[in-house]
């Protein structure tokens, strides 16, 4: 047996010490980290649907879209006023001082009040404006639906980011334990002379690397949890993990054509573009209607009280006047403004028609990409499941080979790294498939909150 220098023997016999963690990490591991705004850690985990419901009531982007939708509803109702009667009340009082060589100096006062009303009998521009307002409701609904779909996907992405970070930390900790065991075995073998110092050095280097990965994984998990807290407006959220064994749902329908076809009528982007085209078409008609006459029914009742200007009637005179009539107006010449307005509206209508076609193409392309992305993800999951089993077998074989002397320590360490890397990749691939399914439904415009409940059924209760 080889004799080792005393310094090397003392170094190898020294226990492996983990680096000192910052204070905030120690507090987080002790369960005392309170988040950015302060608060207690949760007593139970939450499902994806629960956290999405919280995000709907807290997320600033979605609340902004919902307020914009309510504003559009009120704006659309304003156009109805152009078809309804209008009434107004006016009143006034006046005091005057008159200094005349005939009548001398005197003060006078007068009062008047009037009620006026009008009713549009024929105003084609107002009717078209009202039709445009109704079409704008479809545009507003499409905008709100798009914001809801975006929030569903964003909530799911943040949810799975936390789960992936948790899995990464779990696998790193398991790898650290395995490397620590391998390091201890290398030290024992070196003590008895069955291995060289190289094995210990390689195991120590791998252990130090895993420690660094553990610190990075802890920090990443903390950041991901804070992002989820900020999204849903809670402190210390704890998402439920996937239940084992994980069985991913199949894509239905399993052909891309139905996904593309159904997007034509329901996708919020296409709905917005179609509504914009309808509004632009009505705007062309509105510009053309500017050449047409208008006819209004008008009525007024007026009361006036003022000093008499006749010597035959001294004092104040009261006058009551009632009138009913029709008001006709026909533009004869506007300096070319109406003609050019029609040309402008027609060009904008062509633009809206082209935008609708572009929206259809973009939605179809995005739907196809999302569909094949899910299929690719499912194939990757199957491949990684097979790779996980193969990596486990390879690790077992390398451990056995190391014990009998046909494998060296680095072979075992590499096999361990490959196994845990495969486990991490598999977990991420599963989350990507679930998220990709939601993105597929978002791309085709059929995403609903019920789809989150389907994911909840896969979570551990």
Task: Jot down its keywords.
alpha+beta, elongated, 461 residues, single chain, four-stranded antiparallel beta sheet, Outer membrane efflux proteins (OEP)
Structure description:
63% of the residues lie in helices and 13% in strands. By secondary structure, the protein is an alpha+beta fold. The protein has two domains: 6-84 and 124-291 and 343-456, Outer membrane efflux proteins (OEP) (Up-down Bundle), CATH 1.20.1600.10; 85-122 and 294-329, Outer membrane efflux proteins (OEP) (Single Sheet). The protein has a four-stranded antiparallel β-sheet with strand order 1-2-3-4, with no helix packed on it. Helix 4 (60-78) runs antiparallel to helix 5, helix 5 (124-192) packs antiparallel against helix 10 and helix 8 packs antiparallel against helix 9 (337-404). The longest helix has 69 residues, at 124-192. It starts with 5 loop residues before the first helix and ends in a 5-residue tail after the last helix. The relative contact order is 0.14.
């Amino acid at each position: 047996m080889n004799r080792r220098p005393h310094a090397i023997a003392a170094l190898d016999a020294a226990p492996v010490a983990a680096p000192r963690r910052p204070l905030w990490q120690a507090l987080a591991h002790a369960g005392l980290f309170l988040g950015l705004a302060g608060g207690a850690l949760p007593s139970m985990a939450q499902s994806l649907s629960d956290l999405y419901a919280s995000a709907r009531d807290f997320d600033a982007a979605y609340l902004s879209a919902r307020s914009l939708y309510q504003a559009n509803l009120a704006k659309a109702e304003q156009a109805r006023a152009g078809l309804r009667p209008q009434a107004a009340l006016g009143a006034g009082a006046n005091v005057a001082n008159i200094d005349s060589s005939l009548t001398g100096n005197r003060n006078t006062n007068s009062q008047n009040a009037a009620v006026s009303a009008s009713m549009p009998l024929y105003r084609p521009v107002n009717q078209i404006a009202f039709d445009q307002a109704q079409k704008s409701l479809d545009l507003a609904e499409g905008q709100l639906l798009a914001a809801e779909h975006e929030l569903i996907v964003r909530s799911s992405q943040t949810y799975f980011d936390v789960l992936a970070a948790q899995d990464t930390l779990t696998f790193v900790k398991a790898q650290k334990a395995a490397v620590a065991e391998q390091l201890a075995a290398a030290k024992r073998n070196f003590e008895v002379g069955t291995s060289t110092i190289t094995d210990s050095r390689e195991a120590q280097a791998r252990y130090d690397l895993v420690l660094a990965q553990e610190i990075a994984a802890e920090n990443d998990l903390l950041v991901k949890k804070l992002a989820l807290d900020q999204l849903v407006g809670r402190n210390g959220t704890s998402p439920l993990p996937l239940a084992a064994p994980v069985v991913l749902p199949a894509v239905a329908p399993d052909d891309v054509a139905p996904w593309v076809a159904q997007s034509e009528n329901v996708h919020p982007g296409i709905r917005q573009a179609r509504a914009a085209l309808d509004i632009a078409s009505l705007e062309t008609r509105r510009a053309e209607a500017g050449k047409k006459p208008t006819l209004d029914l008008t009525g007024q009742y007026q009361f006036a009280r003022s000093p008499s200007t006749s010597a035959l009637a001294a004092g104040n005179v009261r006058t009551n006047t009632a009138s009913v009539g029709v008001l006709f107006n026909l533009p004869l010449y506007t300096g070319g403004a109406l003609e050019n307005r029609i040309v402008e509206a027609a060009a904008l209508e062509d633009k809206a028609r082209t935008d609708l076609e572009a929206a259809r193409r973009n939605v179809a392309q995005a739907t196809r990409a999302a569909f094949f992305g899910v299929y690719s993800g499912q194939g990757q999951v199957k491949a990684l499941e097979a790779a996980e089993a193969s990596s486990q077998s390879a690790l077992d074989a390398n451990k056995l080979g190391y014990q009998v002397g046909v494998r060296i320590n680095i072979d075992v360490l590499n096999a361990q790294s490959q196994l845990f890397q495969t486990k991490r990749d598999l977990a991420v691939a599963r989350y990507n498939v679930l998220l990709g399914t939601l993105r597929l439904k978002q791309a085709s415009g059929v995403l609903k909150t019920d789809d989150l409940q389907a994911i909840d059924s896969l979570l551990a209760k």
